[in-house]
Amino acid sequence: MDIDVGSKIRALRKSKNISIATLAKDSGLSTGLISQIERNMVVPSIIAMWKISRTLDVNIGYFFDDIGKDDSNIVVKKNNRKKIVTNDSTKFYELLVPNLIGKKIEFILVTLDGHTKKSNEFVTHEGEECGYIIKGKMKITLGNKEYILEEGDSFYFNSTIPHIYENCDDNECISVWAMTPPSF
Question: Residue 3: which region, alpha, beta or left (left: phi > 0; alpha: psi -120 to 50)?
């Protein structure tokens, strides 16, 4: 599914009378990156989306509101999951709910391939997250504590705690996450 995130960011930014320079300064991103995102020349990272969303005072789901507008859907078949595309081709996100519009919880399948990019950039946002490791090993860093989770392990944390997650071996890691409120 192709979603024009760049145009939505530009439209929201302009509706709030915010310049690219101001959005860049307030979000901690470069003006060049904001410009490229708005022109759909680059796909923003999840961290960049969080920074832009926070600065524009919306959640990330605002930019993906085309995902599943049909509220009559109750079941999501395996072959009909909506995928959220980011600039990190080693992380794959699939919605396990029909849509995110007006929802209080987000349910996603996260697949990290064996070459997941390591990041030193922590994420924080309102809410809570929990999940279950279906396959592989994942490292979750919360503040200054690291947790290694293996198949069958589960986790829960307050999303306001700075956090990073990554695959911690060369094999694929698959996990199911629930977040409230929805972050995507």
Answer: beta
Q: How far apart are CA 63 and CA 53, in angstroms?
A: 9
CA dihedral (154, 159, 162, 167) in degrees, to 10, reads: 30
- The Cβ-side half-sphere exposure at 40, using a 13 Å CA radius, reads 8
The b-or-e profile of 13-37 (16+ CB within 10 A means b, else e) is beeeeeebeebbeebebeeebbbeb
At 108-122, the pLDDT tens digits run 999 998 877 677 788
Q: Using one digit for the tens of pLDDT, what is the confidence trace for 15-27?
A: 999 999 999 999 9
CB contact at 8 A, 150 and 171:
no
Question: How far is residue 6's CA from residue 48's CA, in Å, rounded to a whole number?
Answer: 12
Q: What is the DSSP letter of 159?
A: T
CA atoms within 13 A on the CB side of 83: 11
End-to-end CA distance of the chain: 15
Indicate the pLDDT class of residue 145, thresholds 50, 70 and 90: very high
